[in-house]
Amino acid sequence: MNNDIAINIEDLHKNYDDVKAVRGVNYNVRKGEMFGLVGPDGAGKTTTIRMLCGLVKPDSGTATLLDMDIVKDKNKIKDEIGYLSQRFSLYGDLTIDENIEFFAEIHNVNDFENRRNELLEFTRLTPFRNRLADNLSGGMKRKLALTCSLIHKPQVLFLDEPTTGVDPVSRRDFWKILSNLLKEGITILMSTPYLDEAERCSRVALMHKGKIISLDTPPRIKESINVEIAEIVCTRVRDANKLVRGNLNNEVQMFGDRINVVLDKGNNNLDQVLQLLKDNSIEVINYRIVPPSLENIFIYNVEKIEETTR
């Protein structure tokens, strides 16, 4: 028993008919850290979180939360966790205050008024407390949903893609709130499809097709492969992407008006890339060498996996 571990997962599996949603997941989450599950839709993030919350029973494997088994002790676990799902159910015909009161009653929290006032100040919702939930903006709804999930003072908070569909300003506010929650010692496990958000986590697990393909701190994941990125702004981006893919061994990723070409640090062939584009009448407007982002690393790892399974 490790008193520093909030969540421990060993060889967790979950299938839905022929779909292998989670395939042999192993990791732990330390108390007081923000841990990120990162990957596209269908990667297994939501299924993993729903198993840890006791909403879905795993087919095999084990997991403990605060030293309680997620299957045997699921009723006890409910009192220790907060869960913000992708589609958190607010009641549109109730005000902010009334929604919070409803969730306080669900968790048997009797003297919730002071806690509610603290959370409303914390999320800057106090001026809107009498507004119906149906009349809130998307960002305000997410903050209200978070407030409802915190009313009973959980030790562990699960957030399933909490900022999806939220405007940039509300997204920034949401992250400030999460930062303050960490200062209070709450453990946060969140899923996100946004690689820039994952950079804020203390550790991340990159998920693909139900498996974890990389797990570490964001800086160490970036250092795990010996590559750098040539960010090339050019004309005819799609043609440039096809040319490099078809003629060189470099991995290529396309982003808007530029391509990111993955270069081996020990065998940098940037000159060859630039010459190939020039020979095919593609104008290079600008280029620079940049360290890889988590998004670069994720795409690189997925493409390598796809290559080996073809």
What do these coordinates show?
With 310 residues, the chain is α/β, with parallel strands linked by helices. It has 2 domains: 5-221, P-loop containing nucleotide triphosphate hydrolases (Rossmann fold), CATH 3.40.50.300; 226-291, Alpha-Beta Plaits (2-Layer Sandwich). It is built from 11 helices and 14 strands. The protein has helices at residues 45-52, 74-78, 96-106, 113-122, 138-150, 168-183, 195-198, 218-223, 237-247, 270-279, 294-309; strands at 5-16, 19-30, 34-38, 60-65, 68-69, 81-84, 156-160, 187-192, 203-208, 211-216, 227-234, 252-255, 258-264, 284-290. The strands form 3 sheets. The chain has a 6-stranded mixed β-sheet with strand order 6-7-8-3-9-10, sandwiched between helices. It has a 4-stranded antiparallel β-sheet with strand order 2-1-4-5. Strands 12-13-11-14 form a 4-stranded antiparallel β-sheet, sandwiched between helices. The longest helix is centred in the middle third of the chain and has 16 residues, at 168-183. The two termini are 42 Å apart. The mean pLDDT is 92.
Descriptive labels:
310 residues; alpha/beta; Alpha-Beta Plaits; six-stranded mixed β-sheet; Rossmann fold; 2 domains; 35% helix; four-stranded antiparallel β-sheet
> Number of domains in the coordinates?
2
CATH class category of the largest domain: Alpha Beta
List the uncertain runs: none
Strand order of the largest sheet: 6-7-8-3-9-10
* CATH architecture annotation of the largest domain: 3-Layer(aba) Sandwich
Approximate strand percentage: 25-35%
Query: How would you name the CATH homologous superfamily of the largest domain?
Result: P-loop containing nucleotide triphosphate hydrolases
Q: State the separation between the terminal residues, measured CA to CA.
A: 42 Å
Mean pLDDT: 92
Secondary structure: number of strands: 14
Q: What general outline do the C-alpha atoms trace? A: globular
Helix content: 25-40%
What string, H for helix and E for strand, traces the elements in order?
EEEHEEHEHHHEHEHEEHEHEEHEH
Radius of gyration: 23 Å
* CATH fold assignment of the largest domain: Rossmann fold
Number of DSSP helices? 11
Major sheet, described briefly? 6 strands, mixed
Structural class: alpha/beta
